[in-house]
């Protein structure tokens, strides 16, 4: 993913969203995270998404991103953050669990944009 790709996503984000980007010493993007409102959630909740470049996990990038995101979520008045994670994304499940997210639901048979059917785990972080 390029900086231009991220800039295009950010340009279309709704109000009450926040983006945080992690860069390495050469100013290359190695991770990013955002929160945004989601129509299926109550107004006091935000959806979260996190991406860290392959080979860059376990270095504290996700921890730093989440600290910034958690602070921003509180400042925007959110009461909790929702993570919607593919059941086969072991790294994602571990990441959110290690941040303190708690399981609260499952979406079975979710159809991805490419037609693939997966289960999703729902996790919640109370601010």
UniProtKB/TrEMBL annotation:
<dbReference type="InterPro" id="IPR000182">
    <property type="entry name" value="GNAT_dom"/>
</dbReference>
<dbReference type="Pfam" id="PF00583">
    <property type="entry name" value="Acetyltransf_1"/>
</dbReference>
<feature type="domain" description="N-acetyltransferase">
    <location>
        <begin position="1"/>
        <end position="123"/>
    </location>
</feature>
<dbReference type="InterPro" id="IPR016181">
    <property type="entry name" value="Acyl_CoA_acyltransferase"/>
</dbReference>
<keyword id="KW-0808">Transferase</keyword>
<dbReference type="GO" id="GO:0016746">
    <property type="term" value="F:acyltransferase activity"/>
</dbReference>
<keyword id="KW-0012">Acyltransferase</keyword>
<protein>
    <submittedName>
        <fullName>GNAT family N-acetyltransferase</fullName>
        <ecNumber>2.3.-.-</ecNumber>
    </submittedName>
</protein>
